[in-house]
Specification:
Blueprint (H helix, E strand, L loop, with lengths): L10 H20 L24 H21 L8 H15 L10 H7 L7 H12 L2 H6 L1 H11 L13 E7 L7 H9 L5 E5 L6 H8 L5 E5 L2 E5 L3 E6 L8 H5 L2 H4 L5 E8 L2 E9 L4 E3 L2 E3 L1 H15 L6 E6 L10 H4 L3 E2 H5 L17 E6 L2 E7 L10 E6 L1
Parallel strand pairs: 1-2, 7-10
Antiparallel strand pairs: 1-14, 2-4, 3-4, 5-6, 6-7, 8-9, 10-12, 11-12, 13-14
Helix pairs in contact: 3-5, 3-7, 8-9
Length: 396
């Protein structure tokens, strides 16, 4: 049986099939399994951006990233570029402490700053905390200025400079016109074992109470106006000191007995085993913070008059106890502090703040000396007054 041979494949059919195969291979070579255009070469999938890119492109991209990082690092403020405002504030604080005497006293500004000058040091820890937070080397370096100046002014007060011994114990106290318990205050002061006791702001109502409570301890005393002196040792040459409380022509025309009622300073001689000691007790005029500024007119006038009296004192051994309504840094008291030394500065422990009693922030109650040596100085516990008593032990 004869089989029919398969029909011969025409040339046209073969040519039609070849393009189909060619298109399929080309498509497979031009895209990967995901259908995305490819290179036609099997490449490993690293999972990193830029994988499968040309090496020159990868090198260019890495170099650009490094350049951008270097540019950001160069333009970022460094530790010496940050905190320039903080550094300026630190320098201003140092200048304030260093040049406080040159601050204008217009409206009492200079006197106000000097009354609380030690507290300016609180600006240092505040600026330090901010500088550390900002990591500013410039601000930290600038802070050395106010720290150095503050320590030069007040560093000597931080240690205990007291010494044992001494010949006399002195106590001064503004007992307060509004003191609710004058007799109790007198008993506390008597228990201090002071040899010489000076009181200020004694009212007419409270005077008999102080005299009665202190009589057993102090056989000698004198009260002149609103100030008084009690002593275990004999007193002589006791007299009021005119501090110009009532100034002007009308005040000058008043008789002494009228002006005695508001006398706020006295002078006496205390007889000691080592010779006479001149003792002054003073209460200078009050100061006020007003909308127009820091009012110190009365205090400054009293300070000038007291300075004149001290300059005229012939006894080389002298002590001043009193409420001066100013610190020894206050320029208004320069006429006094230039002639006398502070017992607290020379023999105290710390600043010895005495006012206000509830939270003392300033030492306006002073014991100042000349011709004697302070051995120790301290502050006594609170009484019924808004001031704390201050005490000192001196060698004659």
């Amino acid at each position: 049986m004869q089989r029919n041979p398969p029909p011969p494949q025409t040339r046209t059919s073969r040519r039609a099939a070849e393009p189909e195969k060619t298109r399929t291979d080309t498509a497979r070579a031009g895209q990967d399994d995901s259908g995305r255009p490819g290179t036609g070469i099997d490449e490993p999938d690293t999972g990193r951006p830029g994988a499968g890119t040309h090496p020159q492109d990868a090198a260019t991209g890495g170099l650009g990233a490094r350049l951008r990082r270097a540019l950001r690092h160069a333009t970022r403020p460094g530790p010496w570029k940050r905190g320039r405002v903080l550094a300026a504030l630190a320098l201003l604080l140092g200048l304030l402490l260093l040049l406080h005497a040159r601050i204008t006293d217009l409206a009492g500004l200079g006197s106000l700053v000097e009354s609380f000058l030690p507290w300016c040091g609180l600006g240092v820890p505040v600026l330090l905390a901010v500088a550390l937070r900002r990591r500013s080397a410039t601000a930290l370096a600038a802070l050395l200025v106010p720290v150095t100046v503050w320590l030069s002014l007040f560093g000597g007060l931080l240690g205990d400079k007291s010494h044992p011994g001494g010949d006399l114990t002195l106590v001064g106290h503004n007992v307060g016109a509004d003191n609710p318990d004058p007799a109790g205050t007198a008993r506390v002061l008597a228990a201090s074992r002071a040899d010489v006791l000076a009181l200020e702001e004694i009212t007419a109502r409270a005077r008999p109470l102080y005299e009665k409570a202190l009589a057993a301890t102090y056989p000698y005393h004198s009260v002149q106006g609103t100030v008084g002196l009690w002593s275990r040792l004999p007193l002589s040459d006791v007299r009021p000191v005119d501090t110009k409380m009532d100034a002007g022509p009308l005040g000058d025309a008043k008789p002494a007995d009228v002006k005695l009622a508001y006398t706020r300073a006295l002078r006496a001689t205390v007889a000691t085993d080592r010779g006479p000691l001149a003792v002054y007790v003073a209460h200078l005029g009050s100061v006020r913070v007003l909308p127009t500024g820091f009012w110190t007119g009365s205090r400054d006038r009293n300070a000038g008059a007291l300075a004149d009296a001290l300059a005229a004192e012939r006894n080389q051994r002298m002590v001043l106890l009193g409420d001066l309504n100013g610190t020894v840094d206050d320029r208004a008291l320069a006429g006094i502090t230039s002639r006398l030394r502070s017992a607290q500065d020379e023999a105290g422990n710390g600043f010895g703040f005495s006012w206000p009693a509830a939270f003392p922030v300033a030492r306006i109650d002073q014991i100042l000396v000349r011709g004697v040596r302070p051995e120790s100085s301290w502050v006594l516990p609170a009484t019924g007054s808004d001031h704390l008593p201050v005490a000192a032990r001196i060698s004659l």
